[in-house]
Amino acid sequence: MRDWTWRYEGYDPRHERLREALCTLGNGRFATRGAAPEAARGPAHYPGTYAAGCYDRLVSSVAGREVENEDLVNLPNWLPLRFRAAGGDWFTPDARVPLAYEQVLDLRRGRLTRRMRLCDGAGRVIAVEQRRIVHMRDPHLAALSTRLTPEGWSGELEVESALDGDVTNAGVERYRDLDGRHLTGHATGAVGPATVWLDCRTASSGVRVAMAARVRVRPEPPLTSSPEPGPLAVVHRLALAVTDGRPVTVEKTVALHTSRDPAIGDPLDAALDRVAGAADFSGLLASHTTAWAHLWRRAELDVANRAGKVLRLHLFHVLQTLSPHTAGLDVGVPARGLHGEAYRGHVFWDELFVLPYLDLHLPEVSRALLGYRCRRLGAACRAAAEAGHKGAMYPWQSGSDGREETQLLHLNPRSGRWLPDHSRLQQHVGSAVAYNIWRYCEASGDTGFLYGDGAETLLQIARFWADSALWDPARERYRILGVMGPDEYHDAYPGADRPGIDDNAYTNVTAAWVLARALDLCRALPRHRRDELFERVALDPAEPELWEDVSRRLRVPFHQGVISQFDGYADLPALDWDGYRRRYGDIRRLDRILEAEGDSVNRYQASKQADVLMLGYLFPPDELAALFGRLGYPLDDARWRTTVDHYLARTSHGSTLSGLVHGWVLARARRAGAWRHVHEALTGDVADLQGGTTEEGIHLGAMAGTLDLVQRCLTGLEPRSDALRLDPAPLPQLSDFTLTVRYRDHWDVTLRLGSGRLGVGVSESDGSPLTVRLGGRTLTIAPGTARTLDLP
Amino acid sequence: MRDWTWRYEGYDPRHERLREALCTLGNGRFATRGAAPEAARGPAHYPGTYAAGCYDRLVSSVAGREVENEDLVNLPNWLPLRFRAAGGDWFTPDARVPLAYEQVLDLRRGRLTRRMRLCDGAGRVIAVEQRRIVHMRDPHLAALSTRLTPEGWSGELEVESALDGDVTNAGVERYRDLDGRHLTGHATGAVGPATVWLDCRTASSGVRVAMAARVRVRPEPPLTSSPEPGPLAVVHRLALAVTDGRPVTVEKTVALHTSRDPAIGDPLDAALDRVAGAADFSGLLASHTTAWAHLWRRAELDVANRAGKVLRLHLFHVLQTLSPHTAGLDVGVPARGLHGEAYRGHVFWDELFVLPYLDLHLPEVSRALLGYRCRRLGAACRAAAEAGHKGAMYPWQSGSDGREETQLLHLNPRSGRWLPDHSRLQQHVGSAVAYNIWRYCEASGDTGFLYGDGAETLLQIARFWADSALWDPARERYRILGVMGPDEYHDAYPGADRPGIDDNAYTNVTAAWVLARALDLCRALPRHRRDELFERVALDPAEPELWEDVSRRLRVPFHQGVISQFDGYADLPALDWDGYRRRYGDIRRLDRILEAEGDSVNRYQASKQADVLMLGYLFPPDELAALFGRLGYPLDDARWRTTVDHYLARTSHGSTLSGLVHGWVLARARRAGAWRHVHEALTGDVADLQGGTTEEGIHLGAMAGTLDLVQRCLTGLEPRSDALRLDPAPLPQLSDFTLTVRYRDHWDVTLRLGSGRLGVGVSESDGSPLTVRLGGRTLTIAPGTARTLDLP
Asked: Which ranges carry the Glycoside hydrolase family 65 central catalytic domain (chains A, B) (predicted)?
């Protein structure tokens, strides 16, 4: 039996923000953090609702400089609902330790339940059972059902429900000096006795946000029901007659529309219409549960034991952040999901860890997320042109309009200093976009996209790399200078007056791969389409020749048989890892430690996270060897093994992605030590290994990466155009699992690993046989049949 | 040589509105009517710019009743640009007959050029050459280049450019009693000396609309440049020194963004950024021309002579209303394009005449237009539920949110009476949606869509028909009661107290077809997907059994060997057609004539437009015969021929679609008389055959239908999953043409008809051979080869 619940017993204010993050509910369109709605705290502590892709820009002053920042907007909070005996004080777990407290996230049903027994100052006790959903069928709805049972008393119960537009982005402590107020132009009102509404817009981007809330009380209607529209919030006060031991239920149903929604007129009209037509809680729960059942079926991943439970939580967060509803929106993959304010909701490269998973379950969502990048190709081309280059330079951090949103300063909380931030030099984000386009098309066979928007985006990214590469006649190699790789510890050479490092191996090898795929694509494109595309982007016929040349002659530095992270890496001294571990314990953020000491991590052979080793994450061994071979650098198993060993000993894992990548690389090489890293990746968020970062938002890339680790790393699955390739490399601790994937026209391919055997099944409703390639063998599996294979 | 121009010589105020309509420019996102920007008339005469899918709702009072109407919004006019000698009066063709006037629409380049010699009151002459584009590469841009050459004088020239937000929807005379003012909240301003902006929003739907205009003067900068922001418009005044015989050029470049645009923050910021980064006119013209060249290549249709020229104009309008830019928008197929105010920009069933054409050229646009319907499935299901039915009832007229927008009253201009309008009973629009889903998927092979949103929409439409059908035990047939067919002359039985007619043959036969396709689809769906879908829509397992039964036993009435248009049609008296033709001449709007006489067209065997004969338009002869066979009604060639003859003699062709359908049906049957109808369809708009309706907006469905007539009717082309079927039936007047289509994975299939032979060519870059079925033969055509076949 799978355990589908994520449960907390007891109420501990120190843990509530972490629990909130992990118990966030969403549906791809908006998400609501798992806050205690009846709490008496201010809104800054209980940010409620985030809409996907709804950004707003504010100007603040920090460290004497004016900084502009764009945030994923914290929308009005729909959760507030509190209650008290008439004349008493509010029942809240924050005021008095609850007599009992239990919080259960039901992953299967996408439902959060809280059961409490609360006591007020006069000793009155109330039992509370509260269920909450953010609706997965109708993505504009959310609902909160609160059953209240007085214990040992009868009388009048006051209930106060609200829609609260007086909210700020204040969930990340180090951002609190920045202006966090994004909502303006509030209007509130009521329709009849049971429905209230709040209308507002984002301050600078002008997105209208309208919310309507309907409250119903069972079994008897309320004694009184008084909507009280206010300037920033609308409060709905109800008086209920309650009797000892007899439960009353308050159902709050909320509809949310923004001016970015398709198929509506005015957002407020749409919200009012929608809430008026919404079913009651049990009806909503039924359709919501069905929708979740369908999602789980599309993304079946059955892994035994504790790991399986954590993977289900990760899958839950991935599915509710990037659900089928995402496909209709203009949104990207936010690094911290939809519920965390860290990184301001920006889009980085995390999709590199997310899309390969989604490609095999929800290809329409992958395609939409790629479409988000394609729609911002113009912005990326403008950025490249401003940097003096052809092609497209995708931003390291971005939001609504695709421009670079990376901060120019960041705070080292350890030293208190605001420091220059060069991370916008992580131009490798473009290769991540290109990689995902290619992988998606391999998995889906979607030539409409590949030859359409996909082609233009991929070509412009390739073009940027070819144009960025400088020919070095002395070395007879192309070089890419002044960039940052994924490892953010190295943003400049020690003492250098310009930021960036040269010939980052990750950047150059992925760029070579992108160029080679662009050339493949040019050969594959229908002739008219190729002509059209070349004319459209004004491609010089000589450019593909340059791409060919650059793709074969980009420089990759080596030292002592090891791929160097960048040019000059070999010259850096070693760090006294043991010494720092002894002195500081947790040295994940070694950069901050050294900066606070007046030193710089740029000086050492020390990595925050996987950089060179990312290559082993992106490319299966044979593809990686071929890629190095094309570049004229032989890469045999021994050399790769030496490289892995080198970086294993020199990485602090300051990113949640690092454990994942190390685990992946070691697992693919069937090496010991993989599980330790995989385990770290699995527990990164649930145990908040980065110390406080999870409560600022879960790490979506790392979560999705653990799913893909099971799906692609442990199975060796590669969905190629000619066959589904498999090459299982199970870990002893993860050797028994079942998953289903959708691969091209095959909607239901089941993979089952266990007892040293691999089963592959094809649904009887799939139209054609499945071709599988495994260890040199090619198998054809007919629809409605399965094959079980012994692993080598 | 093809003639790519549409040219008017001389200026005639009586014809200007028709010329405006036919010379509209657009790019899928917005369109600008061909108005004379330098005219001194009020804005009501020169509505400027329509944005696709931007609707707004107003409440007016008419005939003592409050009516609500939703219009496609006439956005601020960006065209105004006028000029005069300092102290003189404005040069305008409206004030004084121009010395010369020529207006040329260059279809190939999507460019409108006007050359004029104008004279002011003081006898000063100025030569004007004005070129205008609505940009096809960057759909947010438009530009107007005006070259002014004083003849015989020198001095100061005043130029006044404006962005005019003081606009109304007033282009249709009979709507002028209705409130037409959709813009509010205007703000205006300037950035530097060369750029002005206007920001506003639609009154009830609250869509922000921002426009920025940059003006540059060549060869010398202006003497003075004064932006003058006003309350509803911003005017930009320039003073230029001009010399006799020396041209000066004023380039006005405009950017338009609305709050519905993806990939932007604030629309005004986006518009200002975009216009600041825009190239000069020659650069814009070059990229625009390239984009048009690509469109023409995708939709190659080379037909000789005058017919070919008209078809190019039709294709131009189709491509600029539904361009690749449409694919990124939430818009439907507006009956009158984007430039006409008639029908208030509403979406009817015209897509039935448009998508089968687009499917074979711009399948991504077809898919997006189907997505528009899928996104409004919820509204269609609510409408069905309110009518007491399961499934989806798509609205006859709709706009932003998918609800029914059909007017409840319409005006008979002949009698001056406002009459009840029952046309919302045209429930057959749902079958048009289902038909297009199926045909699109046949042409494209897009199972992702077919099994995804397409399946749910198609099933819900089928479900509505099954639930609407009533079992008549006496007849042992299902019946559909109280509807209207496409023929709007019959909206009730004479003297009946309820609207609608029963067993409309078109409705019932298409409903049976939809039910049969829904059953096909249920069999084809991958098992999990089918289960998911059935659960999602709570489909009772017994329902498909009912669909099967209804699809075989829907009633189709017959009389005297003829398919009856509806039950009881046979009992209606004949009309004295010759008498009415004698008395009224043009009897296209026979309904208005009879109503004005106190009679009703409901009383007669008289049709406004094809209804039964539409079946011959939708279904090739074998498919139609099979469909009737499935229903238990043998339909042989003789019976169909008798049916065609019957309705040929009883149709007034009050719709532009009617000639098209009659021509199609006769051409497919290789019968004489086809050309007369085809010719009527070809000239419907260019000669404004309906008398004044074209200036209220071109007829997009009829235009696209004429293209499809060449593409599918004259070739007998049917893109099926197993083969491209062909069965040419050229008309003597249309027997020589070339076209290219995109069919599934074949991006470039060329069909060439001429001299009694058919050539089929497959591009060498197409990956796989093409299977063609022609007259019982199956041919395989390898990539890079062509076959020429003698026609039977």
From this structure: 312-707
CB pairs under 8 A between A and B: 139
Digit-coded pLDDT (tens) for B580-599:
999 999 898 999 999 999 99
Contact assessment for residue A90 and residue A161, using Cβ atoms and an 8 Å cutoff: no
Residue of B nearest to A523 (CA): B765
Name the one residue in this structure whose structure tokens are 């180090």.
A174
What's the CATH code of the domain at B77? 2.70.98.40
Q: Name every chain A residue with its beta carbon within 8 A of the beta carbon of B298.
A: 528, 532
Q: Is A249 exposed, middle or buried (0-12, 13-18, 19+ CB in 10 A)?
A: middle
Q: Which string of b and e fits B732-748 if b means at least 16 CB within 10 Å?
A: eebbebbbbbbbbbbbb
Q: Would the CA dihedral through A653, A655, A660, A661 be positive or negative?
A: negative
Token code pair at residue B352: 């039935």
Which residue range forms the structural domain that includes residue B783?
737-790
Q: How many CB atoms lie within 10 A of CB A570?
A: 14
Q: What pLDDT was estimated at residue B172?
A: 81
What residue in B sits closest to A783 (Cα-Cα)? B526
Instruction: Answer for the pair A70, A399: CB distance below 8 angstroms, yes or no.
Output: yes
CA distance A756 to chain B (A): 28
Q: What pLDDT does A66 receive?
A: 83
Q: What is the rounded CA–CA span in Å between residue B209 and residue B196? A: 14
A77-to-A42, A194, A198, B187, B749 alpha-carbon distances in Å: 11, 18, 10, 31, 56
Cβ(A448)–Cβ(A383) under 8 Å?
A: no
Residue B546: is its pLDDT beyond 80? yes
With beta carbons less than 8 A apart as the criterion, state whether A341 and A169 touch.
Answer: yes
- Boundary (domain end) residue, out of A295, A318, A349: A295
A196 in helix, strand or coil? strand
Instruction: List strand residue ranges (DSSP E) for B304-449, in order.
Output: 409-412, 417-420
Is residue B532 situated within a structural domain? Answer: yes
Number of domains in chain A: 3
How distant is the alpha carbon of residue A164 from its chain centre?
A: 27
- Cα separation of A168 and A44, whole Å? 6
- How far apart are the CA of B360 and the nearest CA of chain A, in angstroms? 13
Which CATH number does the domain housing residue B632 bear? Answer: 1.50.10.10
Q: How far apart are CA A166 and CA A115, in angstroms?
A: 28
Q: pLDDT tens, B619-663?
A: 999 999 999 999 999 999 999 999 999 999 999 988 889 899 999
Q: Per the domain annotation, does A728 fall within a domain?
A: no
Task: Give me the residue from B328, B330, B364 closest to A448, CB to CB.
Answer: B364
pTM attached to this predicted model: 0.96
